[in-house]
Every structure is written in structure tokens, then in C-alpha cells.
Amino acid sequence: MQQASGHCPRCGSANPPHMRFCNSCGFLLGGAPPAQAAVPQVPVSMSPLASPNPSPLAPARPMNVQPASVCWRCRSLGETGADFCKFCGARYADGAAQSPSSNVGAAIASYAQQPAQPMQHAPAPVQHAQQQPAVSPGYAQAAPGAVAQYGAQRSATFGTLVAILKDGSDGRAYPIMDDPTDVGRSEGHILLADDPYLSPRHVRLFPRADGLLVRDLDSLNGVYVRLRDPVELFDGDTVLLGQQLLRFEVLPETELPLGPAMHRGVLVFGTPEVPRLARLVQYTTEGVGRDVHYLYRDESVIGREQGDIVCTDDPFMSRRHAAVALDRSARRFVLRDLGSSNGTAVRVRGERLLRPGDQFRIGRHLFRYDRAGAQA
Known about the structure:
This protein is mainly beta. The chain has helices at residues 95-98, 104-112; strands spanning 134-135, 157-164, 170-177, 181-184, 190-191, 203-208, 211-216, 223-226, 231-233, 238-241, 244-250, 262-263, 266-267, 278-283, 289-295, 299-303, 309-310, 322-327, 332-337, 344-347, 351-354, 359-362, 365-370.
């Protein structure tokens, strides 16, 4: 019997010293004290001890503990009687809602057939030479340009994520399974520990019959999908062109054109007014807006050498990179790429469905989604 290392700051339950997450409420041990709101007690609806078909578990696995729950998120073997996974903090009871077709009893049976192994602590990110991206347990290592082989603990391969290198060639390929795949800097199935712009758990990928659903997990820097076709811009959209991060803002009523000004019966002299409706604000790594570009032309071109907005110091931007067209009658703005080399991307709001061949960027990593047997 292991000695408890202390009490959970959220629910007060005692936990063994090697726990990262509380067995009773899933709280990250060692973190900041939780809010004082009461934590509802949710019963475990899928306990391996209550499996309707216990016969596959008859040949008990030679371990010093009783059969324990298998996490639906990270597929790790948890503690006996625990409500939450000690590795990733997921609630075991949520497994049925996340993957209705999963069978916890079958997963435990697969563990029972494996040789006895001691219980492991939470896996640390794998370190690779030359700071190459890491792959969490469940993935085997893959050479650049090759598809990594996935472990037996997850389902069949749905497709691949191919890293695109700076010279445009294909780099490492990661398999996408039939169940959700998380990508992050320190948490998830695919770990990119060398990217300081990624959140610990950044994005989640959901395989679907009609494509790959990309969901931003409330990351700081977001997920950017490269345009294939023109898209309408909405207030607050963020656009990535080369190294330029531009926020699209619709002008409030107080900033719309006011008409000629008059002071003491005299018209104010100045540059002729133009009917403007929106603007692009350039954001820097300081997290604040710097240059402001008002959109008042029927079409505003952005480029490195030619256009209405010119960024001469951006080597990743094409001469004429992208354009924003204005439909005055409908007060709509449409963004389109002008055949640029590095593309134009828009930040995902919530989630976005990708087709085979689509590219998306997280932090400084650019990926292409490929699906076996599908044409881009």
C-alpha cells in the first residue's frame, strides 16, 4: 500500500506520490488551487469491474493490482477504482460519449494478454536529436518522408499529417487514427516540444467520413488553414500572409465617414474623405497592433513589391500576394489568394473541416492532411 503524498487541493482526496492528476476529480496535482465552486460527483458509468461480459478477463493478467480502467483519451492503464486518468486527467465516464463504439472491456482484455509489466509514471516527451518533433507513446518513430507505424492500442489508420519543411519538401509523416488525435507542445498524441508558440495541448483532430475536423483547443496562437478558394471576412478574423499577421476589423458607427467638417462657418481643409468600412491592423510579437490600413477601395492588394499595402521587408510574401475585395451594396469583404508561393491562411474559429491536400499551420509547424486513396 503506497503512502499518500497529500490531499487534492480541489476535493481533498489522498493520492499516491506518483500521481499527476487526482484519481477522484482529475485535478492537476501541484497546480494552482481551484475555484471554490463545488465539484459535482459524477459516477463512473463504464467500470471494467461491471463489464457485462467478464469472461474474456478470466485469465487474469499477472499483476499485483486488480484490473483497472483504460483511459479513452490517452489509452493508458489507470489506477483501480479511479474516476479520472492519472496521466491526462480525463474522466473515465466520458469515454462512452467520446467514442460510443469503444469497448473498455475489450481494451482491458488486450492488456491482460500482454506480459506483466510494472506500473509506469506519466510518459515524458520524447527527446530527439536536432530537436525533431516528438511522438507520444502509441506511435513508433518514423524517418522523414515515411509514415510512422501506430501502436496496437489504437484503431486503424485514417490518414496522415505530413510536415512541410521550409524548402517546401515533405518532412516527417504522422498517422491519424480513427479516433481523435491531439497535437501539442507537451500533451497529446503528437508532441512538438521544440515549438514555443504551441500551447501544451493545442489542437484536436477528428476523423470523419467527409474529411478531417480540426478543432482549436482554446490555444493562444490558434490554427491557420491555407485558402483554396476565396472566403468572406468577418469582424475579428485574423489573416496570415508571409510573416504578416493582420486582424480584420469592421468599423463601428463612431468611426464611419462623418462628412465634411465645418468650423465657425468655414469648411475644414484636408485630404479628401473616402468611404471606408473596415481596416486591417498589423499585429506584432508584442501582442499589440502597430500599422493600421483602412479598406476603402473596391479591391485592396497586399504584396511585397506591388499593391495598396506593401511589405517590402517580408521575404516570405509574394510580389502580389493576396487581395481583399469590397462588395459595397452588401457591405461584404472577400479575401482571395493571388497565386502566392507560401499561401494565405485564415485563423480557425472553433473548428474547420479539411479536405485531403489541405494545409494548416500551428505555431511554426506547417502540415498537410493526406488520406489514403483520396485525391487532393
